[in-house]
Amino acid sequence: MNIRIVLAYDGQAYVGWQRQSNGISVQEKLEEVLSRIAEKKVQVEGASRTDTGVHALGMTASFRWDRVRPSGSELHRAVNALLPGDIRVTSLAKAPLKFHARFSAKRKLYRYRILCHPTGDAFRRLYTWHVSSPLNLFAMRKAARSFVGKMDFSSVAANPGYDRTTMVRTIFRCAVLRKPNDEIHIEVEGDGFLYKMVRTIVGTLVDVGKGKRDAESISTMLNSRDRRLAGKTAPAQGLYLVHVKYH
Amino acid sequence: MNIRIVLAYDGQAYVGWQRQSNGISVQEKLEEVLSRIAEKKVQVEGASRTDTGVHALGMTASFRWDRVRPSGSELHRAVNALLPGDIRVTSLAKAPLKFHARFSAKRKLYRYRILCHPTGDAFRRLYTWHVSSPLNLFAMRKAARSFVGKMDFSSVAANPGYDRTTMVRTIFRCAVLRKPNDEIHIEVEGDGFLYKMVRTIVGTLVDVGKGKRDAESISTMLNSRDRRLAGKTAPAQGLYLVHVKYH
User: Fold this and answer.
1) Average of per-residue pLDDT across B226-237
2) Which of A153, A221, B102, B143 might form a disulfide with A229, Cβ 3.0–4.6 angstroms?
């Protein structure tokens, strides 16, 4: 049986989704729990790596399950009972045998939360990037349009060796949204993302919002394929994998 | 010059407002910062003690300030720049000389956030009390009315030695509110509170909501002045000092 699950997690305690030698990953926690329930090794495939400290509202993962019990809602409850409180399985269901969380994924939506406020907020410091100066959303929206399309995103990727095949990705949408409580959200939807790509896009857009660079400079930067022309990588704690689409 | 400030803080890293020998308090952090700016010892009076791990949205404090500069908005900015991100001063203003954050306080409003959901939420576990079973709000509201009035609250106070004078307090309002995203808030407004009183009221109301005790049992419990008849103390991370009223 093939199972598809959706997870939300607070990334602050983890080195990201994928197993790493330098710390605890969400994948490792989930595999531990599933293996304990199955009484044998269970391997999980995640739709996406998320970096150290990055959060998820809707990470999708899949795994094979050959036990009759627990299954379905019983398994769902058992997994949540054994997982730590900062990782929650929000849905668990049987999937077609050919479903694979990573290879079947068509689109991923990321959201980046900026708290734009002079002094910040005691309760959101772990869940947003605090920017104390005002941001020009008109300029940011203009700049954001330059990221939409199918192109080589080398100039907004850290560590290009991470992806050995191609640096070409398609971004379907890059939106700068004003939200309640002094938040600005940047939503980026694409067919895939290079290492630290969303956070570099955000860092670059914030430079535009602060007036440190022109909206027009984005196309030149993308054409250059030179990471040094982009802005700083925005911090991990503002980034959320919102959901993964499969059709 | 007498200064009145309002603070918000995430209580998870602190032993509460008041200086303690067993850990770092919010008062200590604030006095450190003010003393550093004043280049001499500054003592701060807070409106209320908050317990270890309890949060504040609107703690009020007062202190004497005899420096010409920085003062006003300059001082406000300097304090926030030096305080850690989990403590924020939300307002700072000159107050009449006779104003004292504790002695002038007339009413305090506390809010308790319950997350009533089968599996909980990865992002709210540090800021709510997760209750996984459904709660009967009708019964809780009926029970809540019994806490309103001027009476001896010994049966919902931990460690009665904490307050050596009287266990009589006046509760003006005790409301059970259904909120978005599966939250239930319990708001309690009073002229003062005994040690762990709000959290014991909440623990008792949740027992009523679960059907473990009758709404009618509250009056008997209060009349008994016996702490053993009340419910368990609700955990600290759901409690917020919302604001302190001075008139």
Assistant:
1) 94
2) A221
> Is residue A127 a contact partner of residue A237, using CB atoms and an 8 Å limit?
yes
CA pair distance B152, B9, nearest whole angstrom = 30
Phi, psi of B182 (to 5 degrees): 65, 20
CA-only gyration radius of chain A, Å:
19
Spatial separation of the C-alpha atoms in residues A135 and B125, rounded to whole Å: 31
How do strand B183-190 and strand B107-116 relate by DSSP bridges?
antiparallel
* Cβ distance of B8 and A125 shorter than 8 Å: no
Do B47 and B103 contact (CB within 8 A), yes or no?
no
Interface touch B87/A122, C-beta < 8 Å: yes
- B43: exposed, middle or buried (Cβ count in 10 Å: 0-12, 13-18, 19+): exposed
ipTM of the predicted structure? Answer: 0.91
> Whole-prediction pTM value?
0.93
Mean pLDDT computed over A175-182:
98
- Please report which residue ranges of chain B form alpha helices under DSSP H: 26-38, 73-82, 137-145, 197-209, 217-224
Cα(A4)–Cα(A45) distance, rounded to whole angstroms?
10
B152 an active-site residue? no
Cβ atoms A144, A186 nearer than 8 A: yes
Q: What is the dihedral of CA B209, B56, A85, A58, to 10 degrees?
A: 100
Cβ atoms of residues B199 and B112 within 8 Å = yes
Place of tokens 């509760």: B171
Q: Chain A partners of B85 at a C-beta cutoff of 8 Å? A: 120, 122, 125, 130
Q: What is the pLDDT of residues A10-34, one digit of tens each?
A: 999 999 999 999 999 999 999 999 9
